[in-house]
Amino acid sequence: MRLSEMNWMQVEAYLRVDDRCVVPLGSTEQHAYLSLSVDSILSERVALDAAEPLGVPVFPVLAYGLTPYFQEFPGTVSLRLETYVHIVRDILDGLHRSGFRRIMLCNGHGGNAPAGSLAIEWMADHPGTTVRFHSWWNSPRTWEMVQKTDPIASHASWMENFPWTRLANVRSPEAQKPMIDLDRLRLHNPAGVRSMLGDGNYGGVYQRSDEDMLAIWAVAVEETRALIEGPWA
Length: 233
What we know:
three-stranded parallel sheet, 5 strands, mainly alpha, 8 helices, two-stranded antiparallel sheet, Rossmann fold, globular
């Protein structure tokens, strides 16, 4: 359930019987022909779909993350590392103060990995509270399903092209884009990254059937739900 559809008294009542919650982590960055909010849309949706049957509240998505390499693409917004870590720490502090003791950070953006490291450090200072950092798209079962569907899967390619990340009246190319040289890409500044990527897709076809995508989504939701259920430390 969405925390935005609860009041403080309902949260207080919930915490008398459960101490779990989910915080989706996203990003605002280029995704070729898809929404700039792909990572936020997907992390929040998988969290909501997974948590709903369990009655676990899902906080609003943190829609900005670490994406300095895409800053030459208009619409991309990247936080500084120190800013991001401070924000995540403040969120965890606030959740702890409220009474949450089992917290999932449901991540939708690879660049947000420092939040996982911060969570480990934060837990050392807060005995009795567990933070689970879950990057939903590359968890074992979900990634296995992606690879089984099409091993050429990457940023802004078909693997992020769900019915809810597409834009109305925007058509993706039908060709398969060659995979970019990731080692070379990592050597470039933002201008060089844009020059190498062109439209922003790292490589692969731009879209697969809804049947393929919904099959992957079902696995992702099930895998995420299992982690929310536990066991927890």
